[in-house]
Write a structure and sequence with these properties.
By secondary structure, the chain is an alpha+beta fold. The chain has eight helices and 21 strands. The strands form six sheets. Strands 3, 8, 9, 10, 11, 12, 15 and 16 form an eight-stranded mixed sheet that branches. A four-stranded mixed sheet has the order 1-7-4-2, with no helix packed on it. InterPro entries: BAH_dom (IPR001025), BAH_sf (IPR043151), Znf_FYVE_PHD (IPR011011). One of its GO terms (molecular function) is chromatin binding.
Amino acid sequence: MSNHVVDTPMEQDKTSVMITTRLTPEEVVDHRTKSPPRDIEKYPRYDRVEVVFGRIGSSSNVTGYGVMYDYNVGDIVRVHHAGTCDRRSKRRISEMEYWFAKVEEIYVLDDGRESEKPKIWLNVRWFYRAEDMKGYDSSVAKRMKTRELLDSDEKDYITFTSVEGVVDVAHIDEGSGTYEETKDGEDPSMGFFTRWRLEVRTRAGRGTRLVVVGVSLQDACECTCEGCPDQGYDDAAEQRYCDACENWMHVACLRRVAKKVSVEKVKTLFKEGWVDEEMMRSLTRPIARGGVHPTFGNGNEVMKVRQAWKMKKSGVEVGDWDEGVNMYTLWPEDEEVECFRCPQCKKQWV
């Protein structure tokens, strides 16, 4: 959520709208479940809504405006519910107590007018926390991290008054060795992230059920080694990624089925006169996740170093090759390196 003090309202265009209210954000919050108007789709729909709180002065003599919040289609927002709106309690609400949802559509029912409580409806797609999953699939809940969210196809209408700010959520594609960077450039493993998706499926006469789909526990995140005893990703077990055949494999399995490759052998792949000791050390680090590596793994850092090497090799001027590379995420300095030949493609080292 972005918020700032404004002196005059912005001009309204076809994709955004500004609403003003004399109330403060705290006075507007309302978690109570409401039903949207039956003809809601007839109302104006916008990509962005800006709400100015705490208007000062009368409609004929405006002396200033207070704090402005804005929300956009595509934003992932915190949502208040009964457990977060006890006005008698003064305790601080932890982040994971909120519900989370992605804004799909924005409907404004009091377009362009001053309102005591803005009549704005959001069509959202829900995310599930580990706490929410305990009653549906405990095996999935146990594998989820504290700030992990499961995307879903479950949609609902909520009022603007139940929303409390925007959060940045990174996405992990478990079939890939790299991951999506966060908007603010911070370490995604320290914030919210999502890697699995839920579908709500209806069974005749038996109601609905939630199903983990896409890259799930038993799909591309499983180890591809034959006879692997642990078919599923566990942060405690280190895995390696082959970017040639796009497979993840447990280091424990590689020790059993793959041929070892010495670090000295790997160095010959990058032997150029201008490669110094520090760059060579970085180039010989495989893509890994789990164990001493975070949930996201080190794929992004590894690829930054390899890209810098490719650019220098092709004659492109490169400044500091390690600029923007998190060396600890790439590989902890005191951690030994074991390399293997991929047992799947028989070509790439991992």
